[in-house]
Description:
By secondary structure, the chain is an alpha/beta fold. It is 51% helix and 12% strand. The protein contains twelve helices and seven strands. The protein has helices at residues 10-21, 40-46, 61-73, 88-100, 116-119, 129-142, 156-183, 191-197, 207-219, 235-245, 251-263, 269-282; strands at residues 2-6, 25-29, 52-55, 79-82, 104-111, 122-126, 148-152. It has a seven-stranded mixed β-sheet, with helices on both faces. Helix 3 links the parallel strand 3 (52-55) and strand 4 (79-82). Helix 7 packs across helix 11. The longest helix is centred in the middle third of the chain and has 28 residues, at 156-183. It is elongated and about 75 Å long.
Amino acid sequence: MQLGMIGLGRMGGNMTKRLAEHGHDVKTYDPNVESTAKTLEELRDQLSTPRTFWTMVPAGKVTEDTFRTLLGLAAEGDAIVDGGNSNFHDSQRRYADAKEHGVRFVDAGVSGGVWGLEVGYCLMVGGDDDAVAQVEPAFRDLAPENGYAHVGPSGAGHFVKMVHNGIEYGLMQAYAEGFEVMNSSEFDLDLHEIAGIWRYGSVVRSWLLELLHAAFEVEGPKLEKIRGYVEDSGEGRWTIHEAIAEDVPVPVITAALYARFASRQDESFAAKVNAALRNQFGGHAVLPEG
């Protein structure tokens, strides 16, 4: 099939390559990278109707601006696919706006990172049946076998991807804490070796563990080449917000998000308060600043 890929970063660029390898005709637009089109208008003109526009840009204002521009350029029957990590509420709103213009809208949660080009991308897709069917040849070739599903109506794709990323936070934090316990123990443990053997036969084996084993090789046996500063891209927060709205307890995901917050502090003011209080009521020693 033919489609226009908008955004050629780490994900969009590799997805374009994988689609091309499977025989799809992909036109491209990214103002920061060599593309087939210099503008979205030119991209539109390079596509045959009904057109399919696929956006792989950061969630938030960039996605909203791109969607609005495409909505003004698209014709009835064209489809817009948002493959970024948009909030599912925004996707439902964009679906409604697109429908008023006779334009199809699909929200596609995409997981696979930089390895997707080689092994494929897991795709969680939301939207109307006819809209999804228009793009399905691309979905099937981007995904590995059994790695794609039309999970529900508009918003469902990004909702499932949101929860997927929330779970990812918890899994990563569990590994992080376990390896910190081993790193702090009385034993001189080879963490790289342990991560390696856990990949085989262990009940905690996973792709994340394989990546951690690789990270020890690249970043050093104590990960001494990197700083323990962990960002979050929003999906963990959204998962917690939805859990609160649904009265569902998610203590692991919540703790994992807070651990990421803590990683960004040079020194926690809360820790200073704790130390000061222990000194005041119990005479416990405090360490001087610096």
